């Protein structure tokens, strides 16, 4: 029990769960799709502020500070585009990934080397794929899709990203990931009990922030493991795939589809951890 | 007053200089005999010690007017070592020293105040992560003379000080990792 109370992750976990509950309550009371949509980005921003203990000054200097504003910018842009334009959601995901990698990596991209020139398009593509995969879940009808499934997917992808960030030289990013995972899990459970639709800003806003953190270790400090990143990019597609493999009788049961989809997205975790342990120094070794 | 000149020089040198800095600079920091260490609280159990191994600098010094002396120090942040590779990677990453985007930490000495026969306070501007704040170091002059090993005209000094890392926007994991950072600097400058 002491280990939990003394954990440096307790503040971020608590804050994210509280914010998630508050947004869930607001969405239920108001019936507002916007409140439900903004919940996940809000959880990400709170996770950032509690983990880094600051709201970065604007304009942000340094990649870690840009992560916060990537999430803010993509959330607002996705809200606006959803309301006033009719861009396909895959295009929004691609744009969000482009903004994340381009802004976070701008210092390096100003004087690109050969590795950067390969990394940048790969990260935009992989990030766009991951964001589209998550947002696609939100847009799919139940029982295998919907807001609850997308939020479970976001929680799972956050959990997958934690070891990638830890081994990539960002122990701070672990707190960010755990906070987002906890908050998204709470929102997912609430979304399962009270199903509601989510706008693209939900997955793109929170997901782009997470993506920006991963872009930082990939583009700026160059410590990211490419295999781990590839698995994270593909993970959101494992949910619908697993749900489709279920026997029809089970696939039609929302609780089964929801649990199986979420666990399927989380399933690469042991592979990612094993890969990182095999290919990198263990930052937790004493 | 006689001691003040070498003390001022020593104190300037102490801050770690790299730099091509000034025309007619008298002394240059000797990187092989300059050590910039920092200590920060780790969960209340101990102090974690880190070291920057690449420090250079230049001092322009007028013995008749030590207060007008100039100092510029450049510490390469990528030279950080803490005796544990994964932690070094973390500390050099974007969440801490962000060495990819901020490869240099600089100190420019501004004012010197004598506090004893062989000691004084040197205040200057430290620039870290793009943020510049004043930092004061307590400087002790150790020795001036010709080094027997290489016949270089040398001065040596020790400096101590502290800063709050949060002043430079480096707030990660406070209070688990302490806000206050103690500095230990040992340096020689030669000409």
Automatic annotation (TrEMBL), chain A:
Leader sequence residues: none
Membrane-spanning ranges: 12-29, 36-55, 67-85, 90-109, 115-134, 146-167, 173-194, 201-220, 226-243, 255-278
Keyword Transmembrane helix belongs to the record: yes
Superkingdom, natural source: Bacteria
Keywords: Membrane, Transmembrane, Transmembrane helix
Protein name: Uncharacterized protein
Natural source organism: Roseiarcus fermentans
Native organism taxonomy: Bacteria, Pseudomonadati, Pseudomonadota, Alphaproteobacteria, Hyphomicrobiales
Automatic annotation (TrEMBL), chain B:
InterPro entries from the UniProt entry: Lipid/polyisoprenoid-bd_YceI (IPR007372), TTHA0802/YceI-like_sf (IPR036761)
Keyword Zinc: no
Protein name as catalogued: Polyisoprenoid-binding protein YceI
Domain Lipid/polyisoprenoid-binding YceI-like: 26-190
Signal peptide: 1-23
Alphabetical keyword list: Signal
Keyword Signal on entry: yes
């Amino acid at each position: 029990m002491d280990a939990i109370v003394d954990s440096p992750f307790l503040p971020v976990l608590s804050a994210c769960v509280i914010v998630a509950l508050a947004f869930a309550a607001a969405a239920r009371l108001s019936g507002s799709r916007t409140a439900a949509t903004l919940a996940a980005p809000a959880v990400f921003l709170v996770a950032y502020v509690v983990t880094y203990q600051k709201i970065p000054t604007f304009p942000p200097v340094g990649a870690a500070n840009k992560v916060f504003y990537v999430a803010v910018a993509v959330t607002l842009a996705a809200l606006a585009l959803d309301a006033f334009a009719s861009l396909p959601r895959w295009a929004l995901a691609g744009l969000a990934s482009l903004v994340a990698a381009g802004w976070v990596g701008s210092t390096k991209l100003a004087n690109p080397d050969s590795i950067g020139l390969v990394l940048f398009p790969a990260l935009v593509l992989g990030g766009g794929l991951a964001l589209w995969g998550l947002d696609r879940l939100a847009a799919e009808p139940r029982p295998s899709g919907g807001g609850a499934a997308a939020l479970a997917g976001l929680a799972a992808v956050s959990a997958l990203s934690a070891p990638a960030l830890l081994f990539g030289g960002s122990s701070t990013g672990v707190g960010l990931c755990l906070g987002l995972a906890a908050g998204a899990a709470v929102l997912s459970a609430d979304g399962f009990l009270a199903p509601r639709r989510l706008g693209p800003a939900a997955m793109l806003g929170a997901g782009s922030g997470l993506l920006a953190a991963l872009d930082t270790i990939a583009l700026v400090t160059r410590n990211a493991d490419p295999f781990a990143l590839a698995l994270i990019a593909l993970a959101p597609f494992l949910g619908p795939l697993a749900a489709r493999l279920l026997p029809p009788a089970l696939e039609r049961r929302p609780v089964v589809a929801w649990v199986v989809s979420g666990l399927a997205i989380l399933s690469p975790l042991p592979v990612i951890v094993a890969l990182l342990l095999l290919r990198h120094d263990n930052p937790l070794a004493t | 007053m006689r001691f003040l000149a070498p003390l001022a020089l020593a104190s300037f040198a102490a801050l770690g200089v790299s730099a091509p800095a000034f025309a007619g600079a008298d002394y240059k920091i000797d990187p092989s005999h300059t050590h910039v260490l920092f200590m920060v609280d780790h969960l209340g159990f101990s102090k974690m010690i880190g070291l920057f191994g690449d420090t250079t600098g230049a001092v322009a010094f007028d013995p008749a007017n030590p207060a007008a002396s100039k100092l510029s120090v450049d510490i390469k942040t990528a030279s950080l070592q803490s005796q544990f590779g994964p932690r070094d990677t973390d500390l050099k990453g974007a969440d801490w020293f962000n060495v990819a985007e901020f490869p240099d930490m600089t100190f420019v000495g501004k004012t010197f105040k004598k506090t004893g026969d062989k000691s004084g306070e040197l205040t200057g501007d430290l620039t870290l992560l793009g943020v510049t704040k004043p930092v004061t170091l307590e400087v002790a002059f150790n020795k001036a003379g010709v080094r027997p090993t290489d016949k270089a005209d040398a001065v040596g000094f020790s400096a101590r000080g502290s800063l709050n890392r949060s002043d430079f926007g480096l707030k990660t994991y406070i209070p688990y990792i302490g806000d206050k950072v103690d500095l230990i600097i040992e340096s020689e400058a030669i000409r």
